[in-house]
Amino acid sequence: MQFHGERRIAATSDYGKLKQSDLHLPYMGKSEDRTLYVQNVPETWDKIQFVRQKGNTNWKTDLSTTVERETERMKSYFSIIDRPELALTEGNVRKPIIYHDRLHRHDYLPLGKPVQVQLVQPITENQFLQWPMMFYVFTETHECEAENLLINNEDLDGHIAAHFKRAPQVTHVVENELLVAAPREPNQVPLRCRVLEKLDDEKIRIYALDIGQTLVVQMSELKIISEYLASVPARAIPCVLYGVTKPTARFANVARRILENITRLAVLVVSFEGGIALVRAFKLNGLPVTEIAQILTYEGACDYKPPNKRKIYPRETILSLRAQKVMFTDTNILCTAYFIKIAIYI
Q: What range(s) does the Tudor domain occupy (predicted)?
């Protein structure tokens, strides 16, 4: 698949003939380095430029441009194909964007680096009554696919709100389809979501991607989602406390109370269990900084085994160190033989 920028460069070997605007296009890397999103989503170039560049503070202009682009993009959401179960009026058929775990991911926390995060509240019963107890956090920024492009929570909220204002409602849903649901409160942001189950003709069970909660909404509250919004990683990052063992019956309620009363929370990823981050969580409300698992232990809610301080190196690093050791040993042997020869000569 070729990109617009690739076609321009292939057309001529003289870079002086390129337009001035072409020189500011983001570098996309080699084709084998690109993700599935960049390779397979049509009109990717336009979607990347849809995110405002880092350092540009004119967000009002960007938001108005966002609305215009989303309106234009609506024209490509419908096509005439032979799918009677998805048929809409006048023979138009909606192409649903189906969730795929390799394409539609949530944001990730860096391994071994403490990050200040915000807890997604409230922690619902289906989260804290299961074991291990899961909670969701989100960071302040979302990195886009292209270099030098950054989207933060405020930008994404504006893009979702602008899209929801113009997007058409759905009259049917498909399991695992990605959509946008109406906000729960008048002044809140619409929810990007995934369809889990159709309960009846009107009630739909959804998973809200940016808050990590399962909700039941009306069919009339759902609208189609754009490919751009579907491609942005979900903000809710699932986390589990690392090293917690032997939880008591009080654990869930105590952990929920402690987490929800923290105004400043930091997490440090120790490892990953699939897409779930196993973290050490820290309370930053004043000094000293306290680890949440230790607080739970003091209150008799569980036992806690902190991570081993021994550093674990990847296989590639170990092999590289071994190769350097062999080279160093060979050098020592040669040097020793050289000095022995000199001593004999003297």
A: 155-243
Say if 326 falls within a structural domain. yes
Sign of CA dihedral 156, 159, 162, 165: negative
Hey, what's the torsion of the CAs at 37, 3, 73, 197, to 10 degrees?
-20
Query: Rounded to an integer, what is the distance from CA 198 to the centroid of its chain?
Result: 26
Q: Are 125 and 294 in contact (CB under 8 A)?
A: no
Q: Has residue 323 been placed in a domain?
A: yes
pLDDT in tens, 273-322: 888 899 999 988 877 888 999 999 998 988 988 887 666 666 777 777 77
Structure token pair of residue 251: 């654990």
Q: Per the domain annotation, does 114 fall within a domain?
A: no
Which position has the token pair 């397979």? 40
Entry pTM: 0.59
Question: How far apart, in whole angstroms, are the C-alpha atoms of residue 12 and residue 215?
Answer: 54
Residue-number span of the structural domain to which 340 is assigned: 316-346
